[in-house]
Amino acid sequence: SRAYHTAEHIRACLAEFDECRELARHPEEVEAALWFHDAVYVAGAADNEEQSARLAESALQSHGVAAESCHRVKELVRTTQHLRPPQDPDAQLLCDIDLAILGREPAAFDRFESEIRREYGWVPESQYRSARSAVLARFLARPFIFQTRRFTERYEAQARQNLERAVEALSS
Questions:
Q1: Largest CA distance in the chain
Q2: What is the 3-state secondary structure (H, E, C) of 12-53?
Q3: 39, 40, 41, 147: which is closest to 91 by C-alpha?
């Protein structure tokens, strides 16, 4: 049932992280969180991030990773629910990496939107349009979509254009 939340998304996130790894305070933990952040993904489920966070913690503990690191990775994974901008610098970086697709060129963003729609193919069109528009509008309502300077400078303007275009299309 996955179309966007696939190994390709993880690969793209890791490639993005490779370009800015030096910004992380705990780079190994950010990288682990990237690997695990969509490990559990069921379209429409409210607990994907929580389940992924628990899986990360359990897997890391079983491989002898220090409890403090396991806890930080679990908390990082939880922030990818994107309910509000995080305060922790590593969480900001992680979330910016996860959201980078919003600021990609229009063709890549449109492919992303199409893949998200496929993941929610079971949702009736009018209901999907309303719910998806609300999700995207919440990002537009933020003073900044991205929390780190690097991502704001690189992706903010294009992300706003993409999101405004998508919300308009969903509303028509």
A1: 53
A2: HHHHHHHCCHHHCCCHHHHHHHHHHCCCCCCCCCCCHHHHHH
A3: 147
Q: Nearest-CA neighbor of 69 among 18, 36, 30?
A: 30
Rg of the chain taking only CA atoms, in angstroms: 16
Cα–Cα distances in Å, from 95 out to 1, 65, 159? 23, 23, 14
C-beta separation of 36 from 55 below 8 A: yes
Taking Cα atoms as reference points, which of 27, 5, 9, 8 lies closest to residue 18?
27
Give the predicted TM-score (pTM) of the model. Answer: 0.96
Structure tokens at 155: 């992706």
First to last CA, the chain: 27
Q: Could you give the angle at the alpha carbon of 51 between the alpha carbons of 68 and 112, nearest 5°?
A: 110
> Which residue matches tokens 């992706």?
155
Structure confidence by residue, pLDDT tens digits, 83-128: 999 999 999 999 999 999 999 999 999 999 999 999 999 999 999 9
Q: Pull the structure tokens for residue 150.
A: 């690097």
